[in-house]
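Recap quiz, item 2
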Amino acid sequence: MAECDVDLCEVREVHQEKVSEITAKMPEEDELYDLAELFKVFGDSTRMRILFALFEADICVCDLAQALGMTQSAVSHQLRILRQARLVSSRREGKQVIYFLTDEHVRTIIDKGREHIEED
Amino acid sequence: MAECDVDLCEVREVHQEKVSEITAKMPEEDELYDLAELFKVFGDSTRMRILFALFEADICVCDLAQALGMTQSAVSHQLRILRQARLVSSRREGKQVIYFLTDEHVRTIIDKGREHIEED
DNA sequence: CAAACATATGAGCATCTGTTCATATGTTTA
DNA sequence: TAAACATATGAACAGATGCTCATATGTTTG
């Protein structure tokens, strides 16, 4: 680690054009953060199960809890995260709150993930 | 919370068909886990930045560290995670190890994420 | 309006995750 | 082969995350 000064390659000039190009084309910090936050929401098997459930039907929190064998509280906490990411929406029907997928993005993203997993 | 016995809706029968259908169509635990693990890899802005860097060029660890302003160690740890998820691959060129995107899945998945973010 | 029902939420706790630091492994060069 | 270079990795620590428990909020019904 000498060319790599301070463990950060500060002295290197070898591929400076590459480094510059990468820096130039890097999206804004905001977009990177938002993207990571979005995928983070998909990165939990409980939330994944909730999303698969919503593929089948619009459903209230209580049914969802029963279908997944989880407490109402745990499901509700996860639904809040999904709602904040605008992946699911809700409507009130009497005492119940019915959750549903906001749009087809969820299905598309998960399908792409499946394609990656299922190959090889 | 009475119909919802033990905080789990055990007594409810109201939407039992829905619950059954959801349970029936739920993917295997393995697939849910693998999917969540895959998206978890996308769910960190450092790894997101690494992936965007690799959109531009195949690159060695040292250049990557410089481009991102991170230590070589931190980058290397993240590259291991990306490699284990088969999102990136590597080849050795002399002293250096060059990293590159395994295939187009990464780009597709990130593009779908961007579509979701950029709407509304 | 009170009681029952359905959902949401804050606090606390155990676990997971990303970074740093030190060092090991692997490759080239003098 | 010794020294320099490039990358990988284990341990440790701080911050994030998901669940539980208790309780608050919101809706309907008697």
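Residues 1-13 of chain B have pLDDT under 50 and may be disordered.
Chain B has six helices and three strands.
End of item.
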